[in-house]
């Protein structure tokens, strides 16, 4: 991956910082969209530059196609054309089907799905013209599985999943691979997906067969693989990274410590 240019969205988030750290280790050029303008990333940026990485940090509205195009043009003069797009947008807010309002719905769908469309369209044109590239969407298992916590989030993830498939079909003809990571529970998931109608995240860590929840570093390693030549025949794939969480069957069969009480019903 050395000398390639990697575009990471929402670089401020924990998932974004994990991606920055992983790709920096091989000296990739980094194009980072950061709401904080890089302040929240300073430690990551210092480490990246210690590995010899060049980094361009911006704070643009990814829902505006003109701003995305302008950023790519700026990056091309400083780093070169983007080789890898890591679309890492997983905005979420509590909202159900019955009480969610239009503004909340649109905010989440735009933050996650509209940005995916504009970034893929803009970067995809460059990659197609060059005949190579990789796009990786960092998404969620809730592209398929309702959480009962945020209908707009689940809807946006489903939209990104289908966008990934459509883009894989089109861009694949030009040597560009497009795949999606469906991330399962990580630390803090019970609070993030708190629900009055679903018990999916109750004692969630013990619903993973190993009893160990995933980390953002696990996700970053998978993204690194999908971005590299080793995954040349992986295109249009939805890879569920949840440790087997969605295969959980009965709570009383969970692998758990002795002091954890689980309702056997």
**Cα-based radius of gyration, to the nearest Å:** 19 Å
Q: In DSSP terms, counting alpha (H) and pi (I) runs of 4 or more, how many helices?
A: 7
Query: Considering DSSP H and I runs of 4 or more, what fraction of the residues is helical?
Result: 25-40%
Spatial sequence of strands, sheet with the most strands: 3-2-1-4-5-6-7
Unreliable parts:
none
Terminus-to-terminus distance: 50 Å
**Main sheet record:** 7 strands, parallel
Question: CATH superfamily membership, which one?
Answer: NAD(P)-binding Rossmann-like Domain
Structural class: alpha/beta
The arrangement of helices and strands along the chain is EHEHEHEHEHEHHE
What is the CATH topology assignment?
Rossmann fold
Give the CATH level 1 class.
Answer: Alpha Beta
What CATH architecture do you see? 3-Layer(aba) Sandwich
Shape: globular
Strand content: 5-15%
What is the arithmetic mean of pLDDT?
91
Total strand segments: 7
Taken together, the total number of domains comes to 1
Structural write-up:
The chain has helices spanning 14-24, 42-50, 65-78, 102-130, 151-171, 189-192, 216-227; strands spanning 5-8, 29-33, 55-58, 84-87, 133-140, 176-183, 238-241. With 265 residues, the chain is of the alpha/beta class. It has a single domain (5-253), classed as Rossmann fold (3-Layer(aba) Sandwich), CATH 3.40.50. It has a seven-stranded parallel β-sheet, with helices on both faces. Helix 2 (42-50) links the parallel strand 2 (29-33) and strand 3 (55-58). Helix 4 (102-130) packs parallel to helix 5 (151-171). It is globular.
């Amino acid at each position: 991956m050395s000398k390639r240019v990697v575009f990471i969205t929402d670089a401020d988030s924990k998932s974004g910082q994990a991606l920055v750290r992983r790709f920096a280790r091989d000296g990739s050029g980094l194009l980072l969209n950061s709401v904080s303008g890089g302040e929240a990333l300073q430690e990551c940026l210092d480490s990246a530059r210690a590995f010899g990485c060049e980094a361009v940090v911006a704070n643009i509205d990814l829902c505006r196609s003109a701003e995305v195009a302008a950023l790519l043009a700026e990056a091309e003069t400083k780093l070169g054309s983007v080789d890898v797009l890591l679309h890492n947008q997983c905005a979420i807010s509590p909202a159900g089907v019955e009480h969610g309002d239009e503004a909340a719905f649109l905010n989440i769908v735009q933050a996650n799905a509209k940005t995916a469309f504009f970034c893929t369209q803009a970067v995809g044109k460059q990659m197609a013209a060059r005949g190579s590239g990789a796009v990786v969407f960092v998404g969620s298992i809730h592209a398929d599985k309702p959480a009962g916590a945020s209908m707009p989030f689940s809807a946006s993830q489903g939209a990104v999943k289908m966008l990934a498939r459509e883009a894989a079909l089109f861009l694949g003809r030009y040597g560009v691979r497009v795949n999606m990571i469906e991330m399962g529970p990580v630390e803090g998931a019970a609070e993030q997906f708190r629900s009055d109608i679903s018990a999916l995240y109750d004692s969630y860590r013990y619903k993973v067969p190993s009893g160990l929840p995933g980390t953002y570093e696990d996700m970053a390693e998978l993204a690194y693989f999908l971005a590299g030549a080793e995954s040349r025949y992986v295109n249009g794939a939805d890879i569920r990274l949840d440790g087997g969480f969605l295969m959980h069957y009965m709570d009383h069969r969970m692998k758990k410590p002795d002091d954890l009480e689980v309702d056997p019903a």
